[in-house]
Every structure is written in C-alpha cells, then in structure tokens.
Design a protein that fits this description.
Elements: E1 2-8, E2 15-22, E3 25-29, H1 35-43, E4 47-52, H2 58-61, H3 64-70, E5 75-79, E6 89-91, E7 96-100, E8 103-109, E9 118-121, E10 125-129, E11 132-133, E12 136-137, H4 145-156, E13 163-166, H5 171-181, H6 186-197, E14 208-209, H7 210-216, H8 225-233, H9 240-257
Parallel strand pairs: 3-4, 4-5, 5-6, 10-13
Antiparallel strand pairs: 1-2, 2-3, 7-8, 8-9, 9-10, 11-12, 13-14
Helix pairs in contact: 4-9, 5-6
Bound molecules: zinc ion.
Domain Metallo-beta-lactamase: 14-168
Enzyme class: hydrolase
Catalytic activity: an S-(2-hydroxyacyl)glutathione + H2O = a 2-hydroxy carboxylate + glutathione + H(+)
Length: 258
C-alpha cells in the first residue's frame, strides 16, 4: 500500500489529505477539499474505492460531495457519532475496514478534539486526524479534557513503529512549544536539529512514527516527570485529565501570544 499526502487549505489550515493506493485502487482519508484529489486520481489513473473520515470538521469533510459525485461507487466511512450526513457506513471502536485483501484498518474511538473523532490503524500505519499532530495535538473543539487525555493515552499504547498520518502540518510551531516545555529532552533536541536540516512544510510531507512522538511530543508526555512537574506548578493535580488540561491551556496561551 502506498500512502501519499496531498496538501489542502494551504496557508490557512494546512491540512493533509491522505491517498492510499495499491495497483489501480485508491482510498482517501479526510478530504477537506476535492479538486486536488480528483486531479491526483486522474493523473495516476486510480479508481476510488472509499472515503474515510476521522471527524466532522469542514476541513476534513468539505471535499466529500464532489469526490463522491465523480466516484459514486466509493463508500463513505466515518464516525458513528458524527452529524455529517454524507457518511454512509458508521464506525465505532472495534470495527475493521478491509480496504483490500491485504490491507485493513482498525477503528479506535478517540474523542476529545471533537466528540465524534475516530482514528484508524493497523500493524504499520496510524491515521489519527486531529488527535495527535507531529509534535503536538489538536485543540479541544467539542470533546472534553477527560476524553482527550484518555484518547492520547490510548494511542500511546499502540506500537512505536507505526507511521503517523495526521490532519495538519504544524511541525515547526509545535516543536518550538515542545522545546519550551522540555528544554532538556535530548530526543527532542535531536528532532529539532533534524527538522532544521530537513525543513518540513505542508508541501514536503514529513514522516513521523509513534515512537518518535512518544519521545518528543509533550502531549504524549504530560504524565512523564519532566513535563508533569511543570504542570503541577501550573496547578494541575496528578490525574491525566488535569495534567493534559494544564498543558493544552499552556499551548493555547502560547498560540495566542505568538
Ligand atoms: Zn478538526
């Protein structure tokens, strides 16, 4: 299975639309726009089999209608709890989507960014929408801090070698905040140096693994001593929800000031 990142809403939201392809078949994840997806499918003579959606936000779903119009046989999969009407097959944790005989995706409920958010994963890949970003995480826009903390910990339990395919390209800004949180983390320092050499942007599709995120993403480390100690100073108690909330609030203040 090949996975290709197509930039969308460049310069505003900097989304990734992910296209999976094998032979002449293709599947698309979170099409917030349509034209570049349709162009890609046509240029590569691909037949779209399905559209998969992680959550209800417009920058992940607004391209569906036009794509479905061009490929009426493609099935639209999305969260069970979503208000998005165009979803045909509704998914919840424990479900599995078999894309072809060799490639399936398991469904995890990962609410917190929104109340309806799901993620897809198998033994190689993780499509986590706006739950985990490279070196960061989504904002709370409908879910609760408790849900979000649980979802991050749930994803953290998956294997280190999973490739991460997230909804947006915010690596550079996220790494700046991560350094503020964990100045002394050697893995983070190394990641920052590598990023400075191999500058990621929405047009260059950087790769990350869950293992790298576990070592360097503060939002997968809010209960690790070097991060948690600072969050306690900000008033958090030791529950995952309180620690996550203090970190998310810190990042929101940082974003407003920068
Ligand atoms: Zn979103």
């Amino acid at each position: 299975m090949q996975i290709h990142g197509i930039p969308a809403l460049v310069g505003t939201y900097d989304n990734y639309i992910w296209v999976l392809s094998k032979g002449k078949d293709a599947w698309v994840v979170d099409p917030g726009e349509s034209q570049q997806v349709l162009d890609f499918l046509k240029e590569n003579q691909l037949q779209l089999r399905a559209i998969l959606v992680t959550h209800r936000h417009f920058d992940h779903v607004d391209g569906i209608a036009a794509i479905k119009n061009a490929y009426p046989d493609a099935t639209v999969f999305g969260p069970e709890k979503t208000p998005v009407a165009i979803i045909e097959k509704r998914l919840k944790e424990g479900d599995r989507v078999q894309l072809n005989p060799d490639y399936y995706l398991n469904v995890l409920d990962t609410p917190g960014h929104t109340e309806d958010h799901i993620s897809f994963y198998n033994q190689r890949d993780l499509f986590c929408g706006d739950t985990i970003f490279t070196a960061g995480c989504g904002r709370i826009l409908g879910g609760t801090v408790e849900e979000f903390a649980d979802s991050l910990l749930k994803l953290r339990d998956l294997p280190d070698d999973l490739n991460i395919y997230c909804g947006h390209e915010y690596t550079i800004d996220n790494l700046k905040f991560a350094q503020l949180v964990e100045e002394q983390n050697p893995d983070l320092q190394q990641r920052v140096e590598e990023v400075q050499i191999n500058y990621p942007s929405i047009l260059s599709t950087p790769q990350s693994t869950l293992g790298l995120e576990k070592k360097t993403n503060p939002f997968l480390r809010f209960d690790v001593a070097s991060v948690a100690d600072q969050l306690r100073e900000l008033g958090a108690d030791d529950t995952p929800a309180e620690l996550f909330k203090a970190l998310r609030n810190w990042k929101d203040r940082y974003d407003r000031a920068n």
